[in-house]
Design goal:
The protein is 34% helix and 25% strand. It has 323 residues and is of the alpha/beta class. The protein folds into two domains: 149 residues, Quinone Oxidoreductase, Chain A, domain 1 (Alpha-Beta Complex); 144 residues, NAD(P)-binding Rossmann-like Domain (Rossmann fold, 3-Layer(aba) Sandwich). GO terms for molecular function: oxidoreductase activity; zinc ion binding.
């Protein structure tokens, strides 16, 4: 089978190599899956660079989120078990963790429903307890993680403010349903959000960026607001001033979605069932901006790493998967 492999750490476009390899053999509790579509996530770039919290042995195949087919013909979504990731014709996964692919979504959309939307659902509902009528601010609102949070926020009845970088991404954020869009490249984010909220700020702030975005969040969070820390795509991990959280009366909430797989896996299934319902209703639909063949995966991972994409980029294995 064909699979992209990383033999040394570095930039994805430089270290990912397409090779002919043997199909992986399932271990105890694992299943072999035929990949239909693999969604590209920022962690795939971090895996290539050797900067992710999980460091699989070299060589490995990246690709942490797929829509695939079981040997008995079931269409499922899964997180492949590294080092046999999803940028390949076949991957391995934990049999207990397979989830049915929603019928309302095509393969690329189904592959993109899992990590970003589960992260958004847990962040907004389990951690921040977002309520209808509240104001939600989403950093990097046109990206893969941010676009999911925007849709979930709108589905929950929140007023959504999206912060983006550039006119093209601003247009995408508006199409996603943001009530207010702020372009950080041309506008003062703090001033724009305060004006939009009458000086009150946002009840919930969803931050997958860190760095300067977090500093803005601390200035913009409302009384009894909640900042959900999802990741650090900027590359800078902030050091929050806890005295500021004290005097302003807000909460800083961490979210490591992967922990639920081991700490409370039943919640993963519950979340998936809710997401499937929302997808069937048309309330959420993953924004897949690009569908590329397996041969172009390395270049696509590099574009995601460079932050020049919107929504999700999916690797599709055949014409049927891209339909």
């Amino acid at each position: 089978m064909q699979a992209w492999q990383v033999h040394e750490n570095g930039e994805p476009s430089e270290v990912m190599r397409l090779a002919e390899v043997e199909r992986p053999t399932p271990g105890e509790g694992q299943v072999l899956l035929r990949v239909r579509a693999a969604n590209i996530n920022f962690p795939d770039a971090l895996l290539c660079r050797g900067q992710y919290q999980v460091r699989p042995p070299l060589p490995f195949t990246p690709g942490v989120e797929i829509c695939a087919e079981t040997e008995d013909g079931r269409r499922v979504i899964a997180n492949p078990v590294l080092p046999h990731g999803g940028f390949a014709e076949y991957a391995l996964a934990d049999a207990r963790a397979l989830l049915p692919a929603p019928e309302s979504l095509d393969d690329a959309e189904a592959a993109a429903l899992h990590i970003g939307y589960q992260t958004g659902w847990f962040g907004l509902h389990r951690r921040a307890h977002l309520e209808a009528g509240e104001t939600l601010l989403v950093h990097a609102a046109a990206g893969g993680v941010g676009s999911a949070a925007v849709q979930l926020g709108k589905a929950a009845g929140a007023t959504v403010i999206g912060v983006v970088g550039g006119a093209d991404k601003a247009a995408v954020a508006r199409e996603l349903g943001c009530d207010v869009v702020v372009d950080r490249r041309t506008e003062d984010v703090v001033a724009a959000v305060k004006e939009a909220t009458g000086g009150r700020g946002a009840d919930v702030i969803y931050d997958p960026v860190g760095g300067a975005a977090y500093a803005q969040s601390a200035k913009l969070v409302a009384f009894e607001g909640r900042i959900v820390v999802v990741g650090f795509a900027s590359g800078t991990i902030p050091s929050p001033a806890l005295n500021h959280a004290l005097v302003k009366n807000y909460s800083i909430l961490g979210l490591h979605w992967g922990l639920y797989n081991t700490k409370n896996p039943k919640l993963i299934l519950h979340c998936h069932e809710r997401l499937t319902e929302l997808a069937a209703q048309g309330a959420i639909k993953p924004l897949v901006s690009e569908r590329v063949p397996l041969a172009e995966a390395a270049a696509a991972v590099q574009r995601v790493a460079d932050g020049v994409t919107t929504g999700r980029v999916a690797v599709v294995m055949d014409k049927g998967a891209a339909a």
